[in-house]
Records
---
Amino acid sequence: GAVVSQHPSRVICKSGTSVKIECRSLDFQATTMFWYRQFPKQSLMLMATSNEGSKATYEQGVEKDKFLINHASLTLSTLTVTSAHPEDSSFYICSVPRGPSTGELFFGEGSRLTVL
Amino acid sequence: GENVEQHPSTLSVQEGDSAVIKCTYSDSASNYFPWYKQELGKRPQLIIDIRSNVGEKKDQRIAVTLNKTAKHFSLHITETQPEDSAVYFCAARTSSGNTPLVFGKGTRLSVIA
C-alpha cells in the first residue's frame, strides 16, 4: 500500500485563487518532507524542505510568500500555492525520507495543478 | 550543494539491445544513488539504488555501477523491452540527516520493437 498519500491528484483553478496540496506520511512519522516541482518534460526540482514545527527552507528562486508550507504535525505537510497564475501550472510532488540513515525517499502520487 | 549531470537526454535502442545511462555527481559526501523510472503523469518509481560502500548492484535485467573516485554512476538495462520505454532519472543524496535528493535531468528511453 501507499506509504505517502498526496492529494488532490489533479486540480484546476482560476488565476488568482489559492490551492492547497496535502502530503501525508501514512506509516511513520516524518520530521522532514521535501516538495518538488516538475514542469513538462523536465526533471524534478526541489522547491523546499518542510520541517515539522519550524519554518520551511526554500530553494533559491522559490518565493516563500507564494508557496506557503506548513508542517504542523509529524505526518502532514501542506503546500499552498497562493494567488496562482498560469505559470504555476505544474506537477507538484512531495517526498518523505524513509529513515534517518537509509537514504531512500518515498514519493507521494503527485498533484497536477492547472491554472486557467 | 550537490549537482547531478545525466547523459544522454534521449536514447533509442532496438528491442533486445542494452541501454546505458550515465550520471556524475559533485558532492563527495553523497552516499546514496537511486535510479527512478517515471511514466507520464505518474510519480517516480524506484527501480534500483546503490550505496557508496558497493561498486555494483544487479537486479535481473537492471544493474548499476558506482565509481566513487570519479564520482559517476551508471544504469545498465539489458535485453530491453518496449515496456522499458519511459523517462529515467538518476539522483544523489547523503543518507544521513535531512538532505533532499538531487535529480539529474532525465533520459527519455525509447525501445523500438
Note: Chain A is about 0% helix and 50% strand.
---
Amino acid sequence: ETGVTQTPRHLVMGMTNKKSLKCEQHLGHNAMYWYKQSAKKPLELMFVYSLEERVENNSVPSRFSPECPNSSHLFLHLHTLQPEDSALYLCASSQDSGTSTDTQYFGPGTRLTVL
Amino acid sequence: GNSVTQMEGPVTLSEEAFLTINCTYTATGYPSLFWYVQYPGEGLQLLLKATKADDKGSNKGFEATYRKETTSFHLEKGSVQVSDSAVYFCALRGDETSGSRLTFGEGTQLTVNP
C-alpha cells in the first residue's frame, strides 16, 4: 500500500529538539488526519484537516503543531516534547471528512522516541 | 456518544483454526463499520467494511456482517494462517451528526501458531 506515505519511519529526539513528521497522500483525497498510538491505549485522534483547513483539534498540547500546505501534504511539527510523547504517529486520508461511508486510509506511521 | 467494544485479547490459535473476534457498538443514526489490521511494525490497513445493515464485508478470507439488531460486526475467518498474526481493530464512523470522528475499539492481538 503506497497510497499514504510517512517520513521518517523512525525518529529519536531529545526534549529540546525541533523536528517535523511528514505525510503525503497520493489518493486525491480532501481530508487528512493525525493519530497517536501509544502502547496499551486506544488510538487518539489529534487533528483533522479538510481542504487544507483544520476542522478538528482534540485538546492536543501546543508542543504539537500541524501544518497542511495543500490537500496532499500534512506535517506535524514537534518541539520541546516529553518522554510520554513517545508513540507511533499515524497519518490517514479520506475523500471527505463529513460522511459516514467515508473510508480512511492509513500510512505506515512514524515511530517516535523522546529521550 | 459513539463507542466500540472488542473482545479482549490476546487470542492464540493454531493454523487452520476458525477465528471469531467479537465487536459490538453503540451509535446514533446509521454508522458505517470497519475492520482494520495492523501487522507488526506497520500502520493500519483497511481489511473490510460495511456501510448499512445486513451488508457483509469480505476480504482475504475474512468476513463480517453488519447486524443492526444486535449492534454487532463480528470478524470471522474459516481457516487462519500464521501470516494472519496481527492486531485487529473494529471501528465505527458515525453519520453527519457525529462529525468526522472514526471511533476505534481497543484492538485484539491475534497470534497464529504453526
Note: Chain A has a mean pLDDT of 91.
